[in-house]
Amino acid sequence: MMAFTYRSAVDLARIPLNDASKDRYPDDILLAFANQGVLQILKRRPDLFSQQFVPWPDWADGERLLDDVFPLPAGYLQTVADYITFRAETVDDEHVSSGRASAFGRFFEGEIPL
After folding, report:
1. Secondary structure of 29-96 as H, E, C letters
2. Number of neighbours of residue 28 by Cβ within 10 angstroms
3. Which one of 7, 21, 47, 83 has the largest count of C-beta atoms within 10 Å of its C-beta?
4. pTM for the whole thing?
5. Interatomic CA distance for residues 28 and 3, integer angstroms
6. How many CB atoms lie within 10 A of CB 80?
7. CA-CA distance, 8 to 97, in Å (whole number)?
């Protein structure tokens, strides 16, 4: 069984961001968005983390590294990638104006409703 990492989510987000060369968005920025996306899921669905074996205070600080294990089932990898894309594109005026950023935000909201 393949273990996914935060890098897996960041790499998935790079596809719609058209940033395979990592020129537009540095890893540390996208990783920060990934950390925030996972924390948003934790806030909305703490039940998804009930089987985690990492102590909550250390885990819930939101400071994971690219090669840390992704803490959710694989089905949530794309959800976090959509959140990363949403956050990255809200910085880009072109995509905010076109509505593309909000579309990725709606993808995330649809997967993890309040």
Report:
1. HHHHHHHHHHHHHHHHCHHHHCCCCCCHHHHCCCCCCCCCECCCCHHHHHHHHHHHHHHHHHHCHHHH
2. 8
3. 83
4. 0.78
5. 21
6. 30
7. 28
* Token representation of residue 94: 């072109």
CA distance 36 to 33: 5
DSSP 113: -
Per-residue pLDDT of the chain (114 residues; tens, 9 = 90+): 578 999 999 999 999 999 999 999 999 999 999 999 998 888 888 888 776 555 444 555 557 889 988 888 889 999 999 999 989 988 866 655 567 667 767 767 777 765
How many residues in total does the chain contain? 114
Q: Residues of 54-77 as b/e, b for ≥16 C-beta within 10 angstroms?
A: eeeeebbeeebebebebbbeeebb
Q: Provide the token pair at 12.
A: 């998935």
